[in-house]
Every structure is written in C-alpha cells, then in structure tokens.
Amino acid sequence: MSQQITFETELRTLLKTGKVILGSRKTIKALKSGKLKAIVIASTLRTDIRSDIIHYAKLSGIPVYEYQGSGWNLGTLTAKPFMVSTIGVEELGDSKIMEVGKSIT
C-alpha cells in the first residue's frame, strides 16, 4: 500500500528538513535578492502583497505555490501560534514540494 503524497505532506517535510523564511516582508526581500527556490502563499494572502510576490517571482523565474488553507492554517502547519501568510523556500531539504505542487507563476 503506497502512501499518497500530498502538497501538505511535502510542506511538512520541507519545514522539517529544509530552510524557510516565514512572513511576506522577509520573503519579498529574499526574493528580490535571489535567495529563494520557491514560495508558498496562503490562499487568504492580501491581494496587493500577492501581486507583488507573483510579479517578482515571475521576473526571477521562481515558482509560487498556493496553499489552499488560510494564513491561520499555514501558521498551525508551521507550528507557530500566529498567522503565516507566506513561506519563502531557501533549501528544499527532502521535500518534493516542487513536484507535487502546481505553480501559479
């Protein structure tokens, strides 16, 4: 019996084994300096911030993945007691998130 690989499962693996930046300000700063391999945004991310991230990601050729839950769900997934709307991925670790996720950029 094979275990189904989901975006959420790979996101958990990424958080355990990879290197990430939490928060939209830090993510945009790292994105502009070319330090990211991918970005995960919550489906409830503010439209203006979402537009900025997608714009800079397209310029840099970096994939952006939308997590179908809210910022609160993403915060829970990252084991933080606050909302997390954006995750910047510096190192993928053992995660296959880029294989299972559908990029919106």
Automatic annotation (TrEMBL):
InterPro entries per UniProt: Ribosomal_eL30, Ribosomal_eL30-like, Ribosomal_eL30-like_sf, Ribosomal_eL30_CS, Ribosomal_eL8/eL30/eS12/Gad45
This protein's UniProt keywords: Ribonucleoprotein, Ribosomal protein
UniProt domain Ribosomal protein eL8/eL30/eS12/Gadd45: residue ranges: 8-98
Keyword Lyase carried by entry: no
A Pfam family reported for this protein in Swiss-Prot or TrEMBL: Ribosomal_L7Ae
Cellular component per GO, a single term: cytosolic large ribosomal subunit
Keyword Repressor recorded: no
GO biological process assignments: translation
GO molecular function, one term: RNA binding
Family membership noted in the UniProt record: Belongs to the eukaryotic ribosomal protein eL30 family.
Protein's name in the database: Large ribosomal subunit protein eL30
Organism of origin: Candidatus Acidianus copahuensis
